[in-house]
Amino acid sequence: MSDIPSIAVTELADDAVVVDVREPEEWAAGHAPGAIHLPLGDIPARIDELPETSASLPVVCRSGGRSGRAVEWLVQQGFDVVNVDGGMQAWSRAGKSMVGGTDGQEPTVV
């Protein structure tokens, strides 16, 4: 996956607009405050929901694998996107803001 464009979590603002490609239950447990939820399997049908940005659009999942596949496909479609290295696990470890949480729990990465 070394040819996939990527970005470190530390290079992103806590409220950065990111595309989160995790499954609904993962999203509900906790996500970045500026995230847009587009599960990986839905991207081809919902590609028109990707936001327009003046910079590369970060794509995130739990650890970077699914988002890497999404980035690879989106680059082939002509989009300017980057994979978030380490995914939401790295986001959480970096102490970045998260929202969500289920059953009254604090937001977490599942």
3D architecture notes:
The chain is an alpha/beta fold. Helix content is 26%, strand content 15%. The protein contains 4 helices and 5 strands; from the N terminus they run ββαβαβαβα. The chain has a 5-stranded parallel sheet. The longest helix is centred in the middle third of the chain and has 12 residues, at 65-76. The radius of gyration is 13 Å and the shape is globular.
Quick rundown:
The protein is an alpha/beta fold and 110 residues long.
Number of helices in the DSSP assignment: 4
Summarize the amount of helix as a percent range: 25-40%
Number of strands: 5
Shape: globular
Instruction: Note the main sheet.
Output: 5 strands, parallel
Provide the structure class: alpha/beta
Radius of gyration: 13 Å
Main sheet: strand order: 1-5-4-2-3
List the keywords.
alpha/beta; 5 strands
Topology:
Elements: E1 6-7, E2 18-20, H1 24-29, E3 35-37, H2 43-46, E4 57-60, H3 65-76, E5 81-84, H4 87-93
Parallel strand pairs: 1-5, 2-3, 2-4, 4-5
